[in-house]
Amino acid sequence: MAILIPNDQARKIFLERQRLSEPPGRALTKPGLLQLIDDLGFVQVDSIATVERAHHMILFSRNQTYRREHLTALLEKDGELFEHWTHDASIIPSRLFRYWKHRFRRREPIIAERWKKWHGEGFDSAFEDTFRHIAENGAIMSRDMKVEDHKSGGWWNWHPNKTALEYYWHTGKLAIAGRVNFQKIYDLTERVIAQHHHEPEVDHEEFVDWACRSALEKLGFATSGEIAAFWDIVTPDEAKDWVKAHRGELVDVLIETADGSKPRASVAFAGFPETLGDIPQPPARVRVLSPFDPLLRNRDRAERLFNFFYRIEVFVPEPKRQYGYYVFPLLEGDRMIGRIDMKADRRTGSLDVKKLWLEKGVRPSSGRLEKLDAELVRVGRFAGVDKVTYQSGWREV
Fold first, then answer.
1. Burial status of residue 107 (CB atoms within 10 A of its CB: 0-12, 13-18, 19 or more)
2. Single pTM value for the model
3. Of 130, 193, 225, 347, which has the maximum CB count within 10 A?
């Protein structure tokens, strides 16, 4: 018989797994930062810096003593983190690199065929020269090999060497050694990822077991589809088969939804939820989340748990946007309470608040708005500005 998990408990369990239940002001060391990313599994990377780039916002929302230089050192000096793909470009603990070799092998023929369609036959003519150049001369950026008469554009108009660099990165032969103004620096993988992170080799069965087991551990409870989607390195059928094969280790749970609709049938490890111990109450303060925060990455799961519908509208034409170009979700305790449109103007030293939308039933009480203002001051300082400016009409009527 399935165990019914009340919605408020399910939210707190997931927030705890997401490291959002801890005091955000507790000192975070560099080893502590590595452990934080390891606990999350990965941190998505994105170039948009309306306030601050996504990876920095994700880490800051969990611990506001987070230091960017620690992340840079772990990536570019210590080699304890690497950049690659989960569902999107992400920062991943290097100890997991050996599992990504399976992703490389799976993706190589798919990527080769897809890029052949994009660029036409013969698109890979520059590949050997590009790889040889890096092997002999060291790390490069794509601009270092750009042909003189090439016209810039999107991925469909990449020059051949840029195509080669991305192809070799996606298939594991090159790695990201660092970034300059967010532009990737490519080098041979063996010069970026230490050899001990390549070993020991794992076979396919071990790989699938790790991917599914670790996903369920980090999610707390999940459907087979959510297990497959977490790392995005196993197929839905592989996740289904893993659940069937490991029934002796799992229990069926029903996760109560926030809107009162039918509970969601999921699985968890045996002993759940008693094995979790005391589930902490998340801090009551208001926190700004990145649009790419892993708490909300699976939009359907977030909607079931928090009754919070969220979509990024970056690619939505402005007249059709419901909210704004890059709107930040707001978390208070264990509730998603709204979203805010804001931008850091470093020229004027101001965090400009354009609009605030609170969820239905969330009152704009003076205490709540004071907590929001305190958080915006903290976010502003992190983004390098020293004041918060509320623009005319910022409060939704």
1. middle
2. 0.92
3. 130
